Amino acid sequence: MLTALRLANFKAWQETGVIALKPVTMLLGTNSSGKSSLIQSLLLLKQTAHSPDRSMHLNLGADEAHDYFNFGSFNDILKSGTQSPRQFAIEFAFQADPQSRIESGQFACSYGQTTHGAAVIQTLALSTGGHRFRALRREKGAYAIFVNDDALPRAKGRHLAPERSIALSAEAIAVLGHVGAIAEDLSLAIRRELENIVYLGPLRRKPERDYVWNKMTPGQIESDGHRAVDALLASALTRGAQHNAVLDGVSFWLNRMKVADKLEVKQLGRSNRYEIVVHQAGVSANLRDVGIGISQVLPVLTVAYFAPAGSTIILEEPEIHLHPLAQSVLAELFVAMSRARRIQFIVETHSEHLFRRMQTLIARRETSAEQIALFFAEREADGAMLRKLTVDEYGRVSNWPKYFFGDALGETREQARLMFTRQQRQTGQ
Predict the structure, then answer these.
(1) What residues contact 267, with CB distance under 8 A and at least 6 apart?
(2) Cα-based distances in Å from 71 to 37, 43, 47
(3) What is the pLDDT of residue 237?
(4) H/E/C letters for each residue in 217-259?
(5) What end-to-end distance do the CA atoms of the chain give, in Å?
(6) 72 touches 155 (CB < 8 A)
(7) Distance separating alpha carbons of residues 97 and 192, to the nearest angstrom
(8) CA distances from residue 247 to 34, 219, 296, 302, 380 in whole angstroms, order as listed
(9) Is 63 left (phi over 0), alpha (psi -120 to 50) or beta?
């Protein structure tokens, strides 16, 4: 699980400070306030870690088929107006899976620009327990490798350049001697944390009328929701201990949201084609023929059950096209699945209903302020600013930004005033 994030000179953010991440972290804010940039920093590292080129310092996203974002150039990431040194930084901390040899660790990397305009690592620091490993860029692309607070490097050279932003090279690990194995395990743990990130964006595919099942379980659900139905088909058509687990879980939450009683996978004749049937109030219909809200929330619900236990699921606007009750139930989903499957949710949302239900869950003691982190992003003259919302045990927020969700009480007062004024006039007549 990711436990902290910090950005410096990254897009709208001059300095975020250390952002404490929880099992459920919600990011709210005005449009173009920098919320998405917080998410994109992690996806930038993830797509770099997946790069087939080990020498890649930062994968800015030239491959539209496999990358999450095309970040453009180094200058498109660097915060406008940044003076010398022209560098940006990404840092995160994590609590590793219980199976890992590394219990927890920290990643910190700063990036500069070569004379040819490419992004290049300036400083990479990997830490765990009492061990800290650093790779510092020197002249002509050479790197110096330091351990802990050593004044002198263990080695220097171009061959010691870090790999894919997250790992020391094999040559660097070799010169570290007996602590090299720790550095190697730490790099692997960081890679796994990034691999365990699952991202679902705000733009999701419309459903098909029927689907071909190739008798395989998909490797992942893609950022536009593609393969979500494949995961449902595999759940329904593969026998074993997990038979129907994903399908039943998704049906449960659709029912809880009052948008469907259940889903059914139905074979079309004797072919290998299947349709998703939605049952609601005694009526059955193809997924293609029901409201768009069901198909848009379907990947959100599916990924909560399909992602491996211990994953970090990043969601942008999961509430899109849902009515208010369904939006609020998403809060219950996040709390329940974070507890049952050790799933971490980082959610960027504009939904008042989702937020208000999260407050209610805290007041009911179904979760706590220690398990939930709420942040509000807003723009200032010199960039973005992040405010941690302070929530008490009753779900009350003491530092809520004024009028972000509108002024409900003010609207009620104005309606009452206008009604009273109109009644007075009618009485006077």
Answers:
(1) 273, 274
(2) 11, 11, 11
(3) 92
(4) CCCCCCCCCCCHHHHHHHHHHCCCCCCCHHHHHHHHHHHHCCC
(5) 68
(6) no
(7) 9
(8) 35, 17, 16, 8, 45
(9) beta
- Mean pLDDT score, 279-288: 94
Q: Where are the domains of the chain?
A: 1-196+308-429, 204-307
* The amino acid at 244: N
pLDDT digits (tens, 9 = 90+) for 307-316: 999 999 999 9
Looking at domain 1-196+308-429, its CATH architecture is 3-Layer(aba) Sandwich (3.40)
- Cα–Cα distances in Å, from 240 out to 151, 244, 303? 57, 9, 20
pTM across the whole model: 0.91
Residue 52 scores a pLDDT above 90? no
23-46, pLDDT tens digit by residue?
999 999 888 888 999 999 999 999
DSSP states of 270-317 as a string?
TSSEEEEEEEETTEEEEGGGS-HHHHHHHHHHHHHHHSPTT-EEEEE-
Residue 248 clears pLDDT 90, i.e. is over it: yes
* Average pLDDT of span 154-171: 92
